[in-house]
Amino acid sequence: MNPGDQKILGSLDEAFDRLGISDGMTISFHHHLRNGDYVLNMVVEALAKRGIKDLIIAASSIFPVHTPLVKHMQSGVVTGIVANYISGPVAEAISRGELKKPAIMQTHGGRARAIESGDLHIDVAFIAAPTADTYGNINGVYGKSACGTLGYAVADAEYADKTVAITDNLVSFPACPIEISQVFVDYVVQVDSVGDPKGIVSGTTKITKDPVALIIAKRAGEVIKASGLVKNGMSFQTGAGGTSLAVAAELKEIMKRDGVVGSFASGGITGYLVEMLEEGLFRTLLDVQCFDLVAIESYRNNARHQFMSASMYGNPHTKGAVVNNLDIMILGATEIDTEYNVNVTTGSDGVIMGGSGGHSDTAAGSKLAIVVTQLLKARLPIIKDKVMTITTPGESVDVLVTERGIAVNPRRVDLIEILSKTKLKLMTIEELKTLAENISGLPKAIKTSEHIVAVVEYRDGSVIDVVRQCL
Amino acid sequence: MNPGDQKILGSLDEAFDRLGISDGMTISFHHHLRNGDYVLNMVVEALAKRGIKDLIIAASSIFPVHTPLVKHMQSGVVTGIVANYISGPVAEAISRGELKKPAIMQTHGGRARAIESGDLHIDVAFIAAPTADTYGNINGVYGKSACGTLGYAVADAEYADKTVAITDNLVSFPACPIEISQVFVDYVVQVDSVGDPKGIVSGTTKITKDPVALIIAKRAGEVIKASGLVKNGMSFQTGAGGTSLAVAAELKEIMKRDGVVGSFASGGITGYLVEMLEEGLFRTLLDVQCFDLVAIESYRNNARHQFMSASMYGNPHTKGAVVNNLDIMILGATEIDTEYNVNVTTGSDGVIMGGSGGHSDTAAGSKLAIVVTQLLKARLPIIKDKVMTITTPGESVDVLVTERGIAVNPRRVDLIEILSKTKLKLMTIEELKTLAENISGLPKAIKTSEHIVAVVEYRDGSVIDVVRQCL
Fold first, then answer.
1. 8 Å CB contact of A183 and B311
2. Domain ranges of chain A
3. N or C: which end of chain A has fewer CB within 10 A?
């Protein structure tokens, strides 16, 4: 870009002309606007109108809002999808075999690795930008579509052949703050709206009130306490689900009681973790994605609420990801098997309903990876002989906490020794499995065809499992 | 780096063992600690003790404090130097032919380009870190050796095969703020001191009191005003010298009088520009290097005082450097010739005494590049038929302002037309040259041998000139 060159283009179509988008290209999107995102649909729709075919959509995550992708899959506009998490109609359509090529399901850290290494080559990255200036500097903290950090968009911006910022809040140069720099952005296109604020932030990041889930959280807190990891400098991550947040609440009480100051909490950040930061329970937050308005505001105003890219968060091939420094990680599970392999990719019906996200990254990095789950969900046992789909390998999962008992991975002889000195009810995972099956009976096996609809990549790019079409 | 791996090493020697430093390697340093830097000498001395030979030192700048390099050049420990600015005994020794290979002199933006493109391959980057945490996150704003932004160290950290942080302020993980991320840092070594605070910040970034220089500044202010560039959204950069700051003071008065709010001031930042930011004359500062304590404090505390890397500052091969958005740039000159080529590399004696730094980057990018200088220095005319060394090509220099008259580059027909309607005293550069020579007489030509002691690279990597050994 030479002095005098302009980056502002009048429309998406003008951008497509300049970019020379053609059949078979890989175009990428970030998911910080989550189920409120307008940009993916807007771009794919406009490309479909131009008659483009065979696109590969590399989106960090796909949500129900992206349902229009289904028709584009059916018409051949989109023939490949690469994502870390897919839920809703697109996931169901993939499971029905409606995507021509198998979907590739990565992890948050694995996606950054794939992009940076060239495994996942992006022709054009379209960055939904809550704020962008006329020369392509971007932030997510201001504007009507503010979503906070843009951690998942960094590798796309840096490594795509071409990068386009799509914004509904165009500001004068230079934007402040600058989260993604002008040096990575080719063009800026202004649109009416990049997303629906109602879908961007979820209002449901609240602690569960379900009594069973609260018991599980209490037990998880006791495991954490017993592990000896609750001490000054400790670090912690949890998801935004109700049970996970209840574990955070348990931990908070323990930390307060013991006068412990942790080094950091990380990951997707909720208001609950902001509260812990502000109460001095953690020195900083490392934030790849803001989950709610409180987190966005905190990230905007508090220097100790820090940005991290997906690569810094979990890419195993950097000189050290943040997950490597995690002490305690709270994980969910759709299924877990007696080898402690966890499935968060497919549901009990064998249909895709999620994906790793940061699940396997944090499990691999953390000292203590705890899966919290009820023993049965919708009357189906969670523990299986073999999970339908391996998302996270059992070797990186340490403890399973359920309302009926706690199982520790036999690899963690040290933990078993420590926990068996407590009053916590330890069982083998096989015992827990039998307990559940005695209640519900043996679930029917799901039958699949040989047709592979998705390939599950571990964070290092190796194939850890495949998803087959259900019969 | 896997979970559990440690980055802290006990000593520089332990780092050298791990790094496998061997003869002929290229090691790099940044110059944010300027004439107070201890790290370059510390590392080279320790490598000399290990018997290493033929090192290439890629330092963003070299100052008098680095005099020990001279003995290492003489003994063959150091046989190559790549830098953007070299002053003091090392420059003199290079000019005497004491460095085995010709020194390579780059620009600030050109160095980032060279590193990122692979033209300048760095085996090991040693990053002097005023603050570093145990996992290699670095900032320059805290610690006894605080120097502010670390803009010149970014490309080194990102692209070197190995990167070592050397710190005298080791903090718990994670550092806050994080300027250079852990993902780029292999090892962290703690030392007693990385620099002498007295040399890190210069106390001399004050407006000149010299009446001739003040006249020049006044004229430069009038040229800026007449150019029509003083309007809302304008941008400005100047150096830290007394005359340059006097131009800033002139501009400040004009902006206040006209009620103009600029978009940004950039470059190395002084307290004077901080004052303009705080008075609302600029919306933000884009800072590659803090020149004084006021700038460091402002950068630490004011979100509108923003970081930029050397690449974002001036690399011509990015998707747009900050210099491309510069309206007004105030430049110095040791010599300027009738083609408007400027020399800031060699002195009137033909000996190396500086280098481009950001000179040619900003001249190329800005809409109005003004050279301010007295017509004579030490009784020698500044204007030559041909400069001894071309640092910045005349095609990117617009105006020369001296105390005796103003010359506009004939390429800038538009500017000549505008300025000739004012009361400003326009002359041709040849007329100014004659005027000076009538006062001082014709200076003696400097005689050089054919021996090339330094190669001057333009920002795009092309060779713009060479420096020959003086006779």
1. yes
2. 8-199, 211-446
3. C
Residues of A in contact with B7 (CB under 8 A): 320
Asked if A363 reaches chain B (Cβ–Cβ under 8 Å), the answer is no
Interface of A with B in 310-349 (CB under 8 A): 311-312, 315-316, 318-325
Q: Does B187 touch chain A (CB under 8 A)?
A: no
Task: Encode pLDDT of A4-31 as tens digits.
Answer: 999 999 999 999 999 999 999 999 999 9
Contact B324 A177 (CB under 8 A): no
Fold of B211-446: Glutaconate Coenzyme A-transferase (3.40.1080)
* Of A292, A146, A148, the residue nearest A206 (C-alpha): A292
What is the number of CB-based contacts under 8 A between chain A and chain B? 133
Nearest to A419 by CA among B185, A217, B150, A427: A427
Q: Which of A172, A176, A367 sits opposite B233 (nearest CB)?
A: A172
Tens-digit pLDDT profile for residues A110-139: 999 999 999 999 999 999 999 999 999 999
Residue B218 has pLDDT above 60, yes or no: yes
What's the fold here for domain B8-199?
Answer: Glutaconate Coenzyme A-transferase (3.40.1080)
Q: At what angle do helices A39-49 and A12-19 cross, to 10 degrees?
A: 70
CA separation (Å) from B143 to B128, B138, B193? Answer: 12, 11, 10
Residue ranges of A 235-264 with Cβ closer than 8 A to chain B: 263-264
Which pLDDT does position B204 carry in this prediction? 58
pLDDT at B29: 98
**Among B371, B88, B352, which residue's Cα sits nearest to residue B241?**
B371
Q: Best mutation site among A7, A182, A307 for testing chain B: the one with the most B CBs within 10 Å?
A: A182
> Which spans in B302-440 are helix H?
310-314, 359-365, 413-419, 429-440
In the beta sheet, which residues pair with residue B188?
B8, B165
Complex ipTM: 0.95
pLDDT digits (tens, 9 = 90+) for A15-73: 999 999 999 999 999 999 999 999 999 999 999 999 999 999 999 999 999 999 999 99
Both tokens assigned to A145: 């579509």
Sheet hosting strand A426-427, strand order edge to edge: A305-307, A282-290, A262-269, A235-237, A328-331, A368-372, A399-401, A406-408, A426-427
| Residue A203 pLDDT > 60 | no
Q: Judge whether A8-199 and A211-446 match in fold.
A: yes
Q: Does A24 touch chain B (CB under 8 A)?
A: no
Show residues of chain B in contact with A5, CB under 8 Å. Answer: 320, 324
